[in-house]
Prior knowledge:
Helix content is 18%, strand content 32%. The protein is an alpha+beta fold. The protein has one domain (2-27, 51-195): Cathepsin D, subunit A, domain 1 (Beta Barrel). The strands form 3 sheets. Strands 2-3-8-4-7-6 form a 6-stranded mixed beta barrel. The radius of gyration is 18 Å and the shape is globular.
Amino acid sequence: xSGGATDGDSGLARKAHGRRLENxxxxxxxxxxxxxxxxxxxxxxxxxxxxxxxxxxxxxTLANYDVARIFIDNGSxxxxxxxSTLDQMKVEGFEFEPVSPPLYGFAEHAILPLGQMFxxxxxxxxxxxxxxxxxxxxxxxxxxxxxxxxxxxxKDFRAVASTYHQKLKFPVGKGVGVLCxxxxxxxxxxxxxxxx
Length: 196
C-alpha cells in the first residue's frame, strides 16, 4: 500500500519532510530510546503450524472495541480502517478529516480515501498493554480484513513483526508486549480468493 497523506497532505509538506531527512544527523547513543531487547526464538513457535506462508493478522483494541482481522503490513505507508468496520463499531464523537492524496495497492486503480480518523489503539494484554492515539486512513472498499496496521503504527509503537513466528512484539516500559495470531489469516486469504 502506498500513497495517502503519509508525510502531509500537500507537495510542500512532503518536500519539507524530505528536507528534514536530508538534514538529519545520526543520533548518538545517549539520544536513543532505551528499549528492552526484542527477539524471537524457538519458544515463540509453540502452537504455530509450520511450515506456513500465513500473513500476520491480529486482534487489537480500537476506540474500546476489540477489532479482529487486522493485517500487519510493514510495507504499507498508511494505517487503514475500512468503512464497513467503522460502521460496525458505531463509535460516536470521532470525526474524520478530509485528505486528498490517493492510495495505491488495493486494485489496478487508485482509491480516494474518505478521510483520516484518529483513534486510541491498544496493543497487548495487561500488564503488557500500551495505548497510543493512531491515525487511520478511512477507505470504502471491500476487504477480508477489518483494518491494516502499516509503517506509521509500527513505528509509533516501536513494534517488530515476525510472520514466521506469527507474533508482533513491542516495548512496554522495561518489558515486551506480545500479540499472537492463531493463523486465521489463511481463512481471510481463502475468502479473498473465493470472492474474486
